[in-house]
Design brief:
This protein is an alpha+beta fold. It is elongated and about 50 Å long. The chain folds into 2 domains: about 35 residues, no CATH class; about 80 residues, Hypothetical protein rpa1041 (Alpha-Beta Plaits), CATH 3.30.70. About 40% of the residues lie in helices and about 20% in strands. It starts with a strand and ends with a helix. It contains 3 helices and 6 strands, in the order βββαβαββα.
Length: about 120
């Protein structure tokens, strides 16, 4: 059996790409190894939209903070609340550094908005 690393659906061995997520499928063993790697990671930020999560991820990577996006959104059904959040995960030892980067990027966005509106 193959598994989609994005949505977690299982597919027969004859399928190599997830039709929903458009990503290459992995084996169960690869999934277990991936889960071990991210065992000691924590949520640094949650977002409602993928573009917001991608922007935060880009800021973290620019600051050399390793991170991954964990999406719990189902592309088939629009869900609000905790069932549809997108998490940005970082290693436990990088959480405080990540929070500083995220806070600085949020405050920079506010400053840019104020400059745009002459405040």
């Amino acid at each position: 059996m193959h598994i989609c690393p994005e949505c977690g659906y299982e597919y027969k061995d004859s399928v190599s790409k997830c039709p929903d997520c458009n990503v290459q499928l992995i084996t169960k063993k690869q999934k277990e190894e991936k889960e071990k790697r991210f065992k000691d990671w924590e949520v640094a930020y949650t977002a409602d939209t993928m573009y917001e999560a991608e922007m935060i991820k880009s800021n973290l990577l620019s600051a050399e903070v390793e991170c991954v996006i964990l999406s719990q959104k189902d592309r088939s059904f629009q869900v609000s609340g905790d069932l549809g959040i997108i998490k940005i995960m970082v290693p436990k030892d990088k959480v405080s550094e990540a929070l500083v980067v995220i806070e600085n990027s949020d405050s920079n966005d506010d400053d840019e908005i104020e400059e745009d509106y002459g405040r």
